[in-house]
Amino acid sequence: MSRYEPPVTNPREPISLAIRDVSKWYPIRDPATGAIGRLDVLASITQEVARGRFVSVIGPSGCGKSTLLEIVAGLREPSGGEITVLGQRVTGPHPLLAVVFQEDSTLPWRTVLENVELGLEVRGVPRPQRRATSEQIVDLVGLAGFERAYPSELSGGMRQRVAIARALALEPEVLLMDEPFGALDQQTRIYIGSELLEIWERTRKTVLFITHDMGEAVFLSDEVWVMTHRPGRIKAVVPIDLPRPRDADMLTSPRFHELTAQLWSELAPEAKLALSSNASEL
Amino acid sequence: MAAGALSRPVRHVEYGVLVGMLGIAALVLLIWFLFSGSFLVAAPLPTLGLLFQGLFTDGWMRPHIGVTFGAVLIGFGLALAVGLGAGILLGRSPYWRNVFEPILLALYSIPKIILFPVFLLLFGTGAESRIAMAFVHAVFPLIVSTMVGVSIVSPTHMKVARVLRMQPWQVVGKIYFPSMAPTLVAGMRMGFSLAIVGVVLAELFASREGLGFLIMRAYGQLNIQRMFAVILFLFLVALLVNVSLWALEKRLRAHQ
Amino acid sequence: MTGHRLRLSATTMRWVIVALSILALEAYGRSGLVSRTTFVPPSTMLGTLWELARGGAMWPHLARTLLETIVAFVIGCAVGLPLGLLLWRVPYLGRISEPYLTALYALPLAFFYPLLLALLGLGPAPIIAIAALMAAVPIIVNTRIALGEVRAIYRRLGRSLGCSPLQLYAKIVLPAASPLLFAGIKMGFVYALIGSVAMEFVLADRGLGFAVRYHYNYFDAPEMYAYVLLILAIAIMVNWGLLRGEGAAERGLRG
Fold it and tell me: Interface pTM (ipTM) of the complex?
C-alpha cells in the first residue's frame, strides 16, 4: 500500500465500472455575509473496477461515500466527471446497475416473492418466467420457505436479503450496496456478511459496497478504498489478500487483524477530523 | 400491552371478540325492545316486518331508495374523481399542501347543510341540488385522505422506483396506490357515509321523493313504525358500508 | 438552489387564494349573470349582516347556536373522555366496540332527531342531545387511540420513578397523549357545531341554521346569505382557534 496507487485492475477482465474525475459540490450561502460559496463534497475521484471484483468504500461519517454511490447509481448528477458501466455512460438509473439501500426498501404490501419479482415486472418479463427466476434467487439468498411471507413477518436481516435478491434478479453487471447492513446488530452483520460472500462466490458480480465498518470491509472485499474527510477523495486503495472462499473463522486470523490495523492507520486521522468538524457544526 | 393491541394488525377476529361484537348488537336490540311499545318507539319485530315489506313484498321503499342512492352515488363518484386529482396534485408538493391544508380543514368543518338552500337557488329543486350535497359532503374527506396518502409514500420506495426505472404509470400502480390504499379507503368510508347523510338531510327539507322525504312524511302522519323502518334501513346500509370498508382498511393495513 | 423562482410564503399564498376567491364571487354577484334573488355578492352579504347585528335580529339566533354547541361539546367531553379511557383500559371492550364506533362516526344520527323532538319538545334540548352524541364519538375514538399510542417506555419510566397512578396519568400519560387527545377534542367541537346547525336547519324555532332556512322560505336572499356567511365565519374561526390551541398543546409537550 502506498500514499496513492494507480487503480488496481486485473488485465484479464474487462473494466466493469469506471469513475472518471467525478466531483460534487453544492452552492451554499454564507449566513454572515450572504455571499454564495460552494460546499465541496467530493473532489475529483477516478477509479476503475474490473469485472467480478468486490470493492468496498470506507470513510468517516459525512465524507460523501453515500453521495458517491448515489452518483454511480445515477440517482444524483455529479458536478463534474462521468461514470461508465461496461463503457456505457450513466446518465440516470441504468439497467446494468442494481442498488441495495441502507434503509428497509421492501414493499410491505408484497410477499417476499412479489418483492423479488418487482424489477422483472417493471421490465415486462412474462409472469411464469419471472416467477421461476425469482424462486431461484429467493433460494440462492437462503429465503426458501418464506416466499409467501410478508416483510412484516421477517427480521431486519431477512428483509435486506429480500432487497439483495430483488437486485440480483435483474442480473446486473454491478451491484451497488449502500451500507446495506448498517441497521443490523454486529452478530447479524457477520452472519449475513458471510452469506453475502457465499452468494457472491456463486454469482461473481462486480460489487461496490459502502460501509463504515472496517472489519466488514476487510472480510468482504478484494480491495478497500479509503476516503478522506470532506471533500471526499480516495486517499488509499488497500488490496485485501485474504484467501477465498472466506468464512467467519477468518475474523480471528492474524492477517485479518493486520489488514484492519492498516485500514485504521489510514482512517484514524480522517475520523478525527470528521469528529472535530462535526462538533464545530453543532 | 394495551398500546400493542391497537397498533398490531388484526388479521382475523378471534372468537371471543366476535361474540362480544354480536353481544353489543343484542344489547342494542334489547334496549330497543324495552323502550318500544310507547307511541314514540315502534316495536322491533313489526318494524323489521314493515322494512321487509317495503323492500321486497310491497316495495313501497324501492323507488325512493333509487332516488336517494342515485344522488349519493353520482355525487360520490364526482367527489372521488375531484378528490383523487386534487389530492395527488397537492400531496406531491409540500408547498401547495401547506397552502391548502388549512383551507381544506376549514371547509371540512363547516356545517354543509346550510349550503343546501344555496344549491336550491342555483340548481333548482331537482336531483342536481341533492347531487351537489353529496359532492360537497364527500369531497373534503377524499381530498384530505388522498393528500395524506400521497405525502406518506416512503422516500426509500420512491428511490426503489427510480433505480428500477419505473414508468410514471408503474410508479402510480406499484408504489403510490398500494401505499395510500388504506388511507384512501378510510377517506372513502367517511366520504360515502357523509354523502348519505347530506342527501337524506336535504330530502328532509325540500323534496317530494327519496328516503328523507319518506321519514318526514311518516313523521308528519305520525306513522312512527314507517319512520322507524326507513331509519332502520339507512342505519343498516351505513353500518354495512362502514364495517366492510373498515374491514378492508384493516386488511390493507395488516402488512404495513 | 439552481432555479431561483420567486415564491410567496405559504401563508401569503393562502391569503392571496382566499382573497381571489372572494373577489371572484363578488364579480360573479355583480356581473348580472345571476339574479339578486339567487346570489348576492359578498359585500352585500356583509352589509346585510351588519344591519342584522345592528337591528338586533341576529343575536337571539347566534346566542342559541352558541349555547347548543357549547353545552353539547361539554357533554360530549364529559361522556367521551371517560369512555375513551375505559375502552383503552379494557382492551376487550375496545376491540368489540371498534366496528360500531367506526360506523357511528358517520352514521346518520341526525335521523333520530324527529324522535327526540317528540320526546323533548321543540327547543334546545333535542338539538343538544344529538349534537352531544355527534361530538362524543370522535372524542371517544381519539382518546382511546391517543392513550394507546403512548409509548410503553414512558409508562415503565413512570413506574420506575415510583409515580402513583394519579401522578402517572397527570405527569406522563396525559402530556404524552395530548396532541392526539386534542385532535379528538377539536373534532368534537366541530361536530357539535355541525350537529347544532344541521338540526336547527331541519326543524327548530331559533338558531343560525333556522335563520338560514327561514329566510330561504321567505325568498330573502341577502338575509339568507348573510347568515350563511356568519356560519362559515364561525366555523372557520373555531377551526383556526382550535388549530392554534393544537399547536400550543404540541409545543407544551416539547417545551
Answer: 0.84
